[in-house]
Write a structure and sequence with these properties.
Blueprint (H helix, E strand, L loop, with lengths): L5 E6 L2 H11 L3 E7 L5 E6 L7 E6 L3 H6 L8 E6 L3 H10 L3 E2 L4 E3 L2 E7 L5 E7 L6
Parallel strand pairs: 1-4, 5-9
Antiparallel strand pairs: 2-3, 3-4, 6-8, 7-8, 8-9
Length: about 130
């Protein structure tokens, strides 16, 4: 069996990114290994995630720095699935996560778009059917 192991989010600073994803979004810090003086291997994931996690990669060049906060050209690039939308939405809001909208119902479930600390757009989503997952 194969699966998607990591997706990358380019960040400005490791520690501020860890703080946001751990403390505001509620992810677990799975790994923070120093590779050299300025590079670390930093992996975060939702609690209980079994397959896909997020690699927080510090921009190392000027070109990479231009992508921080706009990796997907303004589109939603990541989808955080939950089985308790209201609980997670309220916890994240209380922790300072900025949502662009109030939760809305779609044919596939309940969703609200939020931005990470750099401006990347994410969906917090609770799907209605297993097929939609």
């Amino acid at each position: 069996m194969t699966h998607l192991g990591l997706v990358t989010v380019v960040v400005r600073d490791y520690d501020e990114a860890i703080a946001f994803y751990r403390d505001a979004v509620g992810f677990d810090l799975l790994e923070d290994t120093h590779v050299d003086d300025d590079k670390r291997w930093v992996v975060v994931a939702p609690p209980g995630a079994k397959e896909t996690a997020v690699l927080l990669a510090k921009a190392a060049t000027d070109e990479q720095a231009t992508r921080v906060g706009d990796q997907t050209a303004g589109r939603v690039g990541w989808f955080l699935n939950t089985e308790a939308f209201e609980r997670d939405y309220e916890r994240m809001r209380a922790a300072g996560v900025v949502f662009e909208e109030e939760p809305r119902r779609e044919p596939y479930g309940t969703v609200a778009v939020f931005r990470d600390l750099y401006g990347n757009r994410w969906d917090l989503i609770q799907l209605d059917t297993p097929r939609a997952r």
